[in-house]
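Board work, copied verbatim: Molybdopterin molybdenumtransferase
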Amino acid sequence: MSGPIPVEEALRRVLASAEAPLGEERVPLEEAFGRVLARDLVALRTQPPFANSAMDGYAVRAVDAAAPAATLRVVGEAAAGRAFAGRVGAGEAVRIFTGAPAPAGADAIVVQEEVRRDGDRVTLGRPARIGDNLRTEGLDFREGERLLGAGRRLGPRDIALAAAANHAALFVRRCARVAILATGDELVAPGEPLGPSQIVASNNFTVAGIVEACGGVPIDLGIARDSMAALDEAIRAALAAKPDVLVTLGGASVGDHDLVQKALAAAGMELGFWKIAMRPGKPLMHGRLGDLRVLGLPGNPTSSTVCAVLFLRPLMRALHGEPDPGADPTRPARLAVDLKANGPRQDYQRCALSRDADGRLMATPLALQDSSLVKVMAYADGLIVRPPDAAPAKAGDACRVLAFDELGV
Ligand SMILES: Nc1nc2c(c(=O)[nH]1)N[C@H]1C(S)=C(S)[C@@H](COP(=O)(O)OP(=O)(O)OC[C@H]3O[C@@H](n4cnc5c(N)ncnc54)[C@H](O)[C@@H]3O)O[C@H]1N2
Ligand code: MOO
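↓ predict structure ↓
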């Protein structure tokens, strides 16, 4: 086996294993939130379909309303959903409400606060100009217009746009199914009785949450013990669940009880790579078991989380057909403290993020960086990314950070 590969190379190989986006399915609009469009969204209608009033007031002909204190005769009414059937003629006005179609002949709306009404007469407080308070047909969008591109993850405003464009259902990508298998004799589920050498499994919750944040469906395969028999059975259960991705947790390193890779190989997995030049997360494993993409995440809680953010998230974005799934997720910031030179592994330091007096993003590494610490991970705002062999850095120097809330993790 060759040595650890660089992070970029590992990401490239993980993304290559997505091959093509998952298939598409048609879902009602009510179920489209968070899904990824599989086809461009094209408007089925023009919005607004007719010129309409932006205000409650009177529809007039600007030519009649040019003189100061012009008085017009009110000949009818137009409300939202109920147009005025006639035409506004010379010296006439139509009472109109917000959203109502502009009557034929009218080319301006005078707001009601600026008129005096007396029976069927209305006297304008000031002259009107053509187009005043009118919304033109197609101001928003036109039938046939491409409104959203395939690959767009749908938020609430996108779904409103689809509704306005008269789509009752949308073609979206099938949600990636991600089976999650925790491994280790020491693990029990929260609330279960704990033996003397045991701890509570937590990584599976991080990964399941990240899967959901990426629009996927987590499939909890529970905890497998550190034996070939238990792992074989768990891998069979994983295959039966027909996931798109299998994530294993723990047992990825070199210890006598780290059997995950061996069990997967026995089940027919073709190993892609094992070990990356990064910290935490060095023993990450990637392979293929038939159609299934396998990501073996290291057991340390920080390591599994960092690997899920850096590799599982882009893999899911690729499976969902989102654009540029491997895009650099970092942004620029400044260091709040000095940092020592980095070693040969790309380093991901848990950090707090804040703004300085000038509003610049500042990154402060948290005091404890041990990869076993769940609390530090929960409290961190993000990660400072330090390239392999980075030189010592001073407070105020530029750095790159990955902000968890921006990535929804
Ligand atoms: N001789 C060496 N030892 C280790 C190396 C190495 O290169 N040589 N690498 C270290 C690094 S780096 C990491 S990371 C860990 C990863 O080891 P494994 O993936 O085999 O993980 P485990 O040994 O199963 O567990 C490590 C640690 O994490 C806890 N754990 C595991 N699963 C969960 C879970 N679902 N929820 C919460 N905590 C979990 C587990 O109890 C262990 O404490 O190996 C180093 N060793
Ligand atoms: O890579 Mo391990 O993930 O350093 O703790």
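The pocket of LQZAQKY5 (ligand 1) is lined by residues 182, 184, 186-187, 199, 201-204, 249-255, 258, 280, 282-283, 298-301, 303, 371-372 (CB under 6 Å).
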